# Entry
Amino acid sequence: MDQFIREVDEDYRREQIAQIWRRFGGLIVTIVVLVLAGIGGWRYYEGVQQDRAYAAATRLDDALRLSRDGKPDDAEKTLSALTSDAPAGYQTLARFRLAAEQGRQNAESGAKAYDVLAADASLGGTMQDLARLRGAMLRLDTPEAEASQHELERLSSPTNPWRHTSRELLGLASLKKGDFDAAGRWFDQIAADRETPAGLRARLEIYTALVAGGPVQTSTQ
# Structure
């Protein structure tokens, strides 16, 4: 009796499966084909993206080599091309590098290129602030130094990821102007920040010694 019941159950299940296949077999095959095609398409897309990224990395390295070899025009040409036809991440790298290359030739030109990056909301706040920092650095020794200092002061807030570099630049700019009190205040902020990088802390010893020494007194006899 048990054997008979099992055989009946198996026949019933087979009949149910056959009915399902007759009703939905075409749909099931279509779904399977679409899934396999989707997986294959995604693998192909990933392969294409990897090839594009590798090509962009090679061209970026070529641009850096051209810059080191004293061929700024060729470097800028390569970087300009990357800003339009490379994958998104490499486009951003190329734009920053192009601004730096322009800044080496002319501080104001480079600063304006960084201004464009700083205004690009698609980069995100952190990268926009990096562009503001780099632009301010280029303007420190230009007639726009005062505006540059205000920008650096804004970037030196306790929550800004670029505050360490901003404070260091502000302290050095104050030293250069002979404002030792202001320099000391900026260096004190660096010392008090628990997240100050080790390299900056090492340089801080030199800076604080310069502040402690005060203005150099010269005497004429």
Remarks:
- Residues 2-68 form the longest helix (67 residues).
- The chain is about 80% helix and 0% strand.
